[in-house]
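cron nightly-structures :: item 1 of 1
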Amino acid sequence: MLDFSQLLPFSLASLILILSPGADSFVLLRIAHSRGVKDGMSALWGINLGNTTQALLMISGIGLVVSKSEAAIFVLKILGGLYMAYLAVMATRAAIRPAMPVAVPSAEGARVKNGSPFMQGLISNITNPKPLLFYLAFFPLFIGSARNVPLQLTMLSSIFVGMALVWQTVIVYGAVKLSETMKSVRFNRIMDVVCAIAFAAISVLIFSEL
């Protein structure tokens, strides 16, 4: 038996959390803005493969074991911090590159040069231990009177990932719309600087928790 009375408070709490900007949001924003809808959506699916994987770890109980391993969390934080630092460097390089005519990039050449957007999204999510720790701390609060706990957690995870998909799709199309509306070198530099600062701040925050 499932406890459907938990759906409304869970959905409201999840909405607040999903709307809060984080590493995944800035990865999506930068990829969609600089490379177009196709790559933005590819990054979105990578991020949500990571979300789904971490949700499955939480449901299976493996996540609880991982969360209690200081070594595993330490390694994930190191990898996550380094990857955010790498993204900050890439965004900084883009911001200071010589001015060139602006276009909405979607060419295969950009994809090859900058790497797979799917993998960028997946790596940014899967190397961040916070989603897993969040699932382990947040989702059990909404088990309620459910007798089948794994099924209740599966239902909650599906709702959360579904809501995240909707919001992230808005981010992708919003970023592309901005890039189409504000076709200027200066605007693109501003976007790169904002993302570079965000990535650097997230990297520093991750390393400060070690």
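cron nightly-structures :: done
The first helix runs from residue 7 to 19.
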